[in-house]
Structures are given as C-alpha cells and as structure tokens.
Amino acid sequence: MSVVARTLTCVDTTLQDPLVGHVLDGRYRVEARIAVGGMATVYRAVDTRLDRVLALKVMHPTLAADGSFVERFIREAKSVARLSHPNVVGVFDQGTDGSYVYLAMEYVAGCTLRDVLRERGALQPRAALDILEPVLAALGAAHRAGFVHRDMKPENVLIGDDGRVKVADFGLVRAVDTVTSTTGTVLGTVSYLAPEQLEHGTTDTRVDVYACGVMLYEMLTGGKPHSGDSPAQVLYRALNDDVPPPSAAVPALPYELDELVASATARNPELRPYDAVALLAQARQARSALSDEQLDAVPPQAIAGGHDNAEDRTSVIPRSLSLPGTGAPGPEQLNRTSRLETPAPPRRTRARGSVAPRRGLLAIVAAVLLALGAGGGVWYITSGQFTRVPAVLNVSEAAAVKRIEGAGLDARTKREFSDTVKRGQVIRTDPGPRERIRDNDTVTLTISKGPEIVKVPDLEGYRLDLAKTRLKNDGLAPGLVTREFSEDVIRGQVIRTEPGVGTEASSGSAVALVVSRGAPVDVPEVSGSSVEDATDLLEREGLKVKIASEQVNSEFDKGLVAEQSPGAGEQVGEGDTVTLTISKGPEMIEVPDVVGDSVDEATQKLQDAGFEVEEDRGLLGLFGDEVKGQSVAGGEQAAKGSTITIEIG
What we know:
By secondary structure, the chain is an alpha+beta fold.
C-alpha cells in the first residue's frame, strides 16, 4: 500500500521513566516508552515467559485509584479479547502490579495514520480507500459483535511496516445494547464526535460511521471538515454545518467520494449507514465506479489549518448550554516505531489536465487559425465560451439553482428518494461537478425527496432467517436480536419487532427482533442418576441432552451422572440443551495411619490428605486425646472426600 514516501522519525521519550527497565508483574520487561496519553502510557516490552515483543499499556497511577477508570480499562481488555479479527489490535493479558494497572497487547511495528497525514497531507484516493476499508472491516466485526468503539480517529489507526492496517485503543468501547445516553459528559475526540454525541450523549454504531467519514475527508483533503480557533468553535460548526464535500477543497476529486463522505457524515444519524459493514459496502461500490486514473490522482498539498493537536485528544466534554473547553488529553497513539517506508507514487510523464500541454495545444491551434484568417476562432477557444459546472452536492435546491444560474447555466430539477441526502438538497448533477460545458447549457439537479418511508411488517411467527429476509426485501435492515421465553410462540420464531408493526421508518433503518426461546422449563436434578434415566427425564421436559466428551471423578459411582449444566432449578427455554458429565467414580487415595497421634494431629493429617474427619469418643474417650483406632486402616485406599472416623481413648 503506497501511503508514505518519506521516513517518519519518532522521538525517544524513555528518559527518566521509572518503568523503563522494570519487570512488571514478574513477567513483562519494559524496554521503551512509545507514547503518553490522558489515561495511560504505552511501552514496548518483552514477555519473558513467552519471549515475544508486545505493547504494554499502563494506566497512570493517579487514575488507578479511580474505580470508574479502572473499570473502563478492564472493559477494554475484555471487549477486545472477544474480537478475533486481523484488523483489530489483539489483547493478550490484563493485570495489576502494585499501583500499576496494565494491558498486554499486540505490538504493531509501524506508525499511526496521524503520522502519515502529518507527513504527507492529502492522500491519493486509492490509498485513502486502502486504509478506510480494513478499518471498516474491523469496526464491522465489533459492531456485529455488539460493540461501539466511540473514539475513532487517525491516532487509533495503525499502519504496520508490512502494510497491515489495524484499529487500536478500544478504551471507550461500549456494548451496543447498553448504550443509550450519558447524563453529564461526552467522551471522545472533538473533531470526530457525531452531532448526537455532542447534543445528547447518544452513542451507537453510527457514531463510529460518522468518525470514519471525517477520517476519509481528512485523508482526501489533508484537513478536517470543521476548523476553529478553539474546540468550542469546532463543536458549534459540527452541530450546525454539514461536512462539506471533499471536492470543495480538492476540485479533482470525483463526486462518488463526495457522496461517500456525505453518507457517512450526515448530521441526522437516521440518514447514515447503520453500521460499519453497511458503510464498507458503500465504500467498495464507490471504488468500483472510479477509474484507475481517478484512484491514482496525485492530490495537492494539505489545506491550511488541517491539523491541531489539541483537537485530536480524547476529551471529557460536559454537555451543557455553554460549549465546552478542550478537556484532558485522551487515548494515546499506540505502537509508533522509528519509521515507516513505502514507495512513492509512480512518476507520470504528464499529469492529467496539466497547464503546460494545454497551453501548447492552444498556441498551435491559434497559429493555424490565424494563418487561415480565422482569428475569431482563437478567441472562441481561449475565452469564456465554456464554463465548469459548480459543485452543489448537499446544497439546498434554492442555493444550488442560484449558483448554477450565476455561472451562466440553466438549471432543471428532478426528484428522487435518498437515504443519505436530506430532503430538498442536491443528490447529484448531470453533468457532474466541475465538468466543462458550454455557456447557457442545462444542468439537471437531482433533488432529494428524503428517505423513502417504509412500514415495519408484521413478522410474528416468522423464523428468524425468514424474518431477516423479509425486512431486507421491504427495504429495512435486521437489527439487534434478543431472545425471551414465550408460552405462545414456537422456539426460534419472532415474537415481536421493535419498533412495532406498522411503524413508519426510513428505508434502511434497523429493526430489532425479539425471538422466542420457547416455553420456560425448570431443569430437573439428574446428578447421581444413570445416563438413561437422566436422558429420559430431561427429554420428557422438552430438553435436549448432550454428553460431555470428558469424564470426571465424583462422589457418584462410575457411569452415573456426575454434573449437569445448566444446574438443577435453573430456568431454560423448551428445546435448550443440558450437558451431562459422566462420573469416573470416586478418586481413591491412601489413608494415612493416625493411630497413636493426638486428636489434633490426626485430624490435620486426614484433612490434608483429602478426607472428612469424624470423632468417636465413647464413654472412655470423653477426656482422652489419643487416637486408638480409625475406621479405615492406615495404608488402605478410600474415596477422596469420604469420612474417616477416629476412635479416641
């Protein structure tokens, strides 16, 4: 992947760090500090047990005393550990060592997308899509697993020396089904927060979609869509202004990329793709519509004011009527190394649309026409008889018509439904933006009628797979699937939808499905029963039976049921499976000889060996303290956990 043409150098920040050279938790030898963020410091370390290099993310000790920060830190480990995807930075371990709370993570040799943008500015469209697509694949896996990242930004996109792209720092990750809104603060990075995060604290998969749209804009133009002298100004513009089309900053960009950015960054979340998987499909569709020449177009220098370190930090933003300040620095860059080298863009013998060849051609034509006595023709070629179609995508109809007519062109309009462009705004133009046409020619503006409204169908009694197919055929998307008990609806069939039947929804909106687990069943006790009896009893209750592949020692005789899962008394759905583990019989161990020992010594020996102890004192042993006999003689075998009676005299 051709992204960077020059070597990127990172600064050594390891001096005077107390952890460098220290072995954390007796296992991880810290070798160098990579980066420092608002919550944690990231180090390069060696796992001395497995002899491998990894990244060690250590929470700042001052924050480790705060239970909420520690909880978020541990949640990151558990969340990412559940994601197995080649484009997600893996988490190997989590632990504590004194005041240090840490994550042991995959080490990626390379740099961040922020490093690339800082070094190169705008990227070629092909390079931008080559980075965006694996990012969306990683987020798509997270979204389909039920998680939202909430802090997507170039700092959290790692580009390895081998060209691999990985998403890092799930420190603000939240489960989709737990995300509603926060009451007091918004966590994230100012420039990449979706409007609904800023206004209401609401977060679902579409906030990651919005952040990816902003990153794509930044890769294509070299700058952020909303700039300002302070984070407050950036927030105000994000809430009130649409993300402009990238072609407004880089005129050579095709309208397919404008539409992709507009779709991902729609201020109304209902108009965005519902998750990263849907946006990935749009990105691939946009790529397929572009020619190699368009994909490999060399961009100009980055637009002014494109990067502001203060805006790229994760902030805790109070949601109040007054716009917030910068907040504290947040999730850090992960795994930057000393350099990333990739080949420079191929040298072209002549850039498309370059000025010099066109002037040369005009000079030749002018000379020929002058020689023929047709000087008027030279004026026709070189003056204002042609113009370019203004860029009006996502502009209101009235403003677009005014701009088209102001360029000396006629405007004609037609309308169609759009899931990504607001009602009354321009979806596309024909001819397209910046195409060269004659003065007074007509430009057709396609105006959005807004999303096509679809009614949620009645899916009660549908099998889950058929319900999903019906939703797709009706122009809706299958959403979160949950299961609950039902006496009336057969297991595996839909009980209801959320929103309910007949609700009007925009085309492409997600509809949650509640699916029946069947009638509730209390699991009977079958431990100690034969396999045949246990199976018969469970099947009569409407449950399925599975025999575990391994057997265990237990108090029950060999061949009987030793354990069951779920346990007796737990409630499951009709048709659920109960797993039975078969007994190998009790574990037999040698009984120690305790005759002649004191009662305390004998009891300790027998308990250490794994037995229960019972005393038999009789009349003669009421005041004695010496063991005169034992129910199982020393040296003989007895079941582990069984009771040995000692006679005291």
